[in-house]
Amino acid sequence: MELAGRNALITGGASGIGLASARRLVEAGMRVALMDRDEAALAAAVAELGDSALAIPGDVASEADVTAAWTRARADLGPLHLAFANAGVGSGPALFAPRVAWDWVLSINVGGVVNVMNAVLPEMLERDEGHLVMTASLAGLGGVPGMGPYVASKFAVVGLAESVAHELVARGSRVGVSVLCPGFVRTQIAESDRAMGPALRAAVPVDEASLAAARAAVAAGIDPAEVASAVADAVVTGRFWILPHERVALRTTEQRLAWMRGGPMPGIDLARAARR
Ligand SMILES: NC(=O)c1ccc[n+]([C@@H]2O[C@H](COP(=O)([O-])OP(=O)(O)OC[C@H]3O[C@@H](n4cnc5c(N)ncnc54)[C@H](O)[C@@H]3O)[C@@H](O)[C@H]2O)c1
């Protein structure tokens, strides 16, 4: 798909991978609607990107907010050619995570992607053009300790994206779908609790060791601009898998396959998932 002159909706567009992608797509001549719940960061992003960007505050976990964001972007920009369902939050370990912690992570990381898909796909299918990118993670390709609800949410996104790809092919549709599976990237993801209200923060225990390991790995991660280039390239070429840490993604998958065949359970080194 050509990028110049086209329109995109990016959720989580005020920070990290979403913001870097907005910069990359605007550079390529696109106009971008950024949806994010962090209104201050959103205002700063739009001030930086100028007339090519539109700020839409909202919560991706809310179907009504996402539908309203699509309606607003459609009204202000015209038809949307690219939707990047990217907003997401991190989590602590699976063991002892209370149900509210699971609900919060799954409602954003999975529910948010489903809401974007349901908002944008009917018109894309009708026009028989457009591209949907869903953000998963390397954590959607193999289990890791210290972030169980997050891992479960990212496996769900990989499964969803693969299923949508099969369904689009079965319909003979020209609408494209991609799944983004980066290892660690230098963003604010390890500070995801900034988006929790006080009641939720009080109810969700913090595992300091897991948080410290995640922070160190994120700090050692790649620049979000590298991920943004990989996303733009996948949209232009129609590639399904977006693997900015390709070597680690393939090794993770090969080790799981060996495990399925009766081999040893893979050892996990989070620092490895930060390096390309
Ligand atoms: N940083 C990494 O190492 C890494 C690795 C793999 C995948 N990812 C994924 O990349 C995506 C983007 O994260 P990031 O690393 O750029 O982190 P980030 O925290 O820098 O950016 C995430 C953005 O999403 C927004 N957001 C969070 N919850 C929201 C909600 N309910 N509604 C609307 N906006 C919401 C935040 O306000 C923030 O602006 C996430 O899905 C994340 O899981 C990140």
Largest sheet descriptor: 7 strands, parallel
Category by helix and strand content? alpha/beta
Look at the structure and give the mean pLDDT: 96
Q: CATH superfamily membership, which one? A: NAD(P)-binding Rossmann-like Domain
The end-to-end span amounts to: 27 Å
- Unique ligands: nicotinamide-adenine-dinucleotide
Low-pLDDT runs: none
Keyphrases for this structure?
single chain; 276 residues; alpha/beta; Rossmann fold; 7-stranded parallel β-sheet; 10 helices; 7 strands; binds nicotinamide-adenine-dinucleotide
Structure description:
The chain is of the alpha/beta class and 276 residues long. It has helices at 16-27, 39-49, 63-77, 99-109, 111-127, 148-171, 198-203, 208-219, 224-237, 246-260; strands spanning 7-11, 31-36, 53-57, 82-85, 131-135, 176-180, 241-242. A 7-stranded parallel beta sheet has the order 3-2-1-4-5-6-7, sandwiched between helices. 47% of the residues are buried. The mean pLDDT is 96.
What's the quick description here?
With 276 residues, the chain is an alpha/beta fold. It contains ten helices and seven strands. It has a single domain, classed as NAD(P)-binding Rossmann-like Domain (Rossmann fold, 3-Layer(aba) Sandwich).
Write the layout of secondary structure elements.
Elements: E1 7-11, H1 16-27, E2 31-36, H2 39-49, E3 53-57, H3 63-77, E4 82-85, H4 99-109, H5 111-127, E5 131-135, H6 148-171, E6 176-180, H7 198-203, H8 208-219, H9 224-237, E7 241-242, H10 246-260
Parallel strand pairs: 1-2, 1-4, 2-3, 4-5, 5-6, 6-7
Helix pairs in contact: 1-9, 3-5, 4-6
The site of nicotinamide-adenine-dinucleotide (NAD) has 30 residues, from helix 1.
